[in-house]
Write a structure and sequence with these properties.
5 helices, mainly alpha
Length: about 170
């Protein structure tokens, strides 16, 4: 259930950013080559999404940090390659596709790449983060939380009734 909830948040944040990115890429492509436009938008959206995923999707309770940004960038590079190959393949098949067709191909490739990114982020990038949804800490592999020490009660010793110290020291 926890993975399903995380995936829903991933879709909202990542998908929302992806839709905004899909609008930004063709707008920037008017000013520069499409590949450069896609690269710039992918870079900006990756930084934003990594922060959103760290704080809200996987609930680490803190910002992503440089290491997680670099790890997330690797999966974003694969997503960039997937969207680029999909659009280039479209242009190879149909040299002048309509904007709607181009958007459909771009968003489809983004959706597939996004699903792959979720798996990578969940299993590798944010796997060691604190997950506030975990009900049983014993079921998690590594939560980075201090464990509560368990004390085992010791049986009480029955007192020796020899008269105590005064009985042992007094002459008989």
């Amino acid at each position: 259930m926890k993975s399903l909830t995380s995936f829903a948040r991933f879709v909202v944040f990542g998908g929302g950013t992806g839709v905004l990115s899909s609008l930004a890429v063709p707008l920037l492509a008017v000013l520069m080559p499409w590949t450069l436009s896609n690269a710039l938008v992918t870079l900006a959206s990756t930084v934003l999404c990594t922060e959103l995923h760290a704080r809200y999707t996987f609930r680490t309770g803190r910002h992503a940090g440089l290491r997680r940004h670099w790890q997330s960038a690797g999966s974003a590079a694969a997503a960039y390659a997937a969207t680029s190959v999909a659009v280039f393949a479209l242009h190879a098949i149909q040299p002048t596709p309509g904007v709607l067709t181009e958007q459909l191909v771009y968003l489809s490739a983004s959706g597939l790449a996004g699903t792959g990114r979720f798996v990578i982020l969940r299993l590798f990038v944010f796997a060691t983060g604190t997950d506030h949804e975990t009900a049983d800490p014993a079921k998690t592999a590594d939560t980075n939380l201090p464990t509560k020490a368990t004390t085992i009660p010791r049986p009480r010793r029955t007192p020796v009734t020899t008269g105590g110290l005064t009985g042992a020291l007094s002459p008989s």
